[in-house]
Amino acid sequence: MGMRPLVAGNWKMNGSRSSLKELAAMAEGYDAALKAKVDLMICPPAPLVFLAAAAAIGTRIAIGGQDCHTEASGAFTGEVSAEMLADAGATAVIVGHSERRQYFREADATVAAKAAAANRAGLVAIVCVGETREEREAGKALAV
Fold this sequence. Notes:
Layout: E1 6-10, H1 21-29, H2 32-35, E2 39-43, H3 49-55, E3 61-65, H4 82-88, E4 92-95, H5 98-103, H6 108-120, E5 124-127, H7 133-137
Parallel strand pairs: 1-2, 2-3, 3-4, 4-5
């Protein structure tokens, strides 16, 4: 038995509490034929994960986090642990996004540690691999 395709929308550093109203409209538009074929997830910024999870109750839309720290807790100001995301209602977390690799110089070893942290917290790790924006725009996506 194969895995069902997952369509995940990463909100990046966008959205607000009021934008969660769109979640209800999205759930209504997620028709029965599509529900049978794919899973749908949104990944809002960390401050909205709890509210998004509450808004998604009764829908088939899952909520994910955009990143997590390698540690479960500690003196890591501004960071979010996988346990915190799970406690807020997330079922998955994105790790290794090209923006994190580019701007924060996250190496494969860090991404692997984040994926392991996600799994320990009971989250599915959505591990991003592939090209940078520049490589994609230069037509090199398949070569990477």
